[in-house]
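Human:
Focus on the backbone:
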Amino acid sequence: MPLSPPAPEIIFYDGHCALCHRTVCFVLEHDRAGIAFRFAPLAGGAFEEKVCAAQRARMPDSMAVLRCDGSLALRSDAVVHILRRLGGAWRLAAACGSAVPGPLRDMLYDFVARIRYRLFGRRDDLCPPVPAELRSRFEL
């Protein structure tokens, strides 16, 4: 009997960050069937519902992935996890990223996170209306 694919995991993202917006678009493009990921903004109700207050309070200002096992992948671990789960050539990129020690990866991630609004922009109107065919992939 063939194994069924794991349930989609949730990527929580900053809905005002252009870099996060581009990341969501990238994942949508490479997970066209929608079997790997769903999406929810960090400022939304789904985040508050699915991530307990104690975890939210300890989280850095970061993208996060709520994995199937209930754990959270944060910062550079989230990026590596996303690439690995997308599969194909992205799995190789994840392997290269995993070869870099986590503290060094997180240092780079934190640097980009600190300047992301200056580099990529911050807008309150960044999240455009989600097309009907993609609405099932977003949790607000």
Notes: The chain has a mean pLDDT of 88. Residues 102-120 form the longest helix (19 residues). The helical segments are 18-30, 45-50, 53-58, 75-86, 89-99, 102-120. The chain is about 50% helix and 10% strand.
